[in-house]
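As a warm-up, study this chain.
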Amino acid sequence: MVQLLPTGLTASVAVAASSANLGPGFDSLGLALGLYDEVIVETVDSGLVVQVDGEGAGQVPLTSDHLVVQGIRRGLREAGVDVPGMVVRCRNAIPHQRGLGSSAAAVVGGLAAVNGLVAQLDRPGLSESRLVQLASEFEGHPDNAAAAVLGGAVVSWTANRPDGGGTGYSAVPLRLHPDIHLFPAIPQLRSSTAETRMLLPEQVSHRDARFNVSRVALLVVALTERPDLLLTATEDLLHQPQRAAAQPESAQFLQLLRQHGIAAVLSGAGPAVIALSTAPELPAEVLEAPAARGFNVTQMRVGDAVKWNSGVVVPG
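Now compare it with the structure written out below.
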């Protein structure tokens, strides 16, 4: 039986941006970034009010179609509860349509907010594995969602459930080597993941598949134990070359970084680029190019796991 939550409950969430693929790990590898959206939910007598500040303000729907609201609704059903009405406040720092996991962060933020609400009634919340599963169902792959839930670097995968209940989404964390520094390069240009995915062929050659298998296996080693191997380990044949024509500025900047010996990859489907380096700073000659190409390059720490609380805003 569904329990109706009382009015006056509040919950807050901080959820990180993420970078998927990391070159060869298409739809499998993810990395949380230290850039956070915040969600605050309050239960009220009736209705739905959605407020958005920061990224996406004036652009995203302020209705039940908002991804945070969809995440909340899905989480409520999973927890066996409902609300008479709610006010949802979103404070967004993650840029939209740049390949930084804003959609996954929205869904994870909504789902995690339910944990903050039900905790006040001493009801069990959603486990990390359930958060990964439910958030991944929205996009059909768990790379960004798993990174947003677990924080840090993750390996994710899909498999048919043994009970025949559809697709199962799972992930495990990696212990990122402490010498790796992250340098996201975020452009003003936007891109649609759905559109860039259409550029990818339905089939790939055995040679290309073998190449990427070797690189993604090496990348796990590079991320955890041998960061000196990052440049080779981030080579990719399955998606980045195919997306280059649609994102020429990103492709050119990525190539420039790699020519200087820096392991650079598209962040997700782009157009953001992320560099992974063992040096605490990028070379000056590399930093001269981004502004002319419309990129803002910053150093960013690794993102934390999603945090939720009851009634108190959780800092990122």
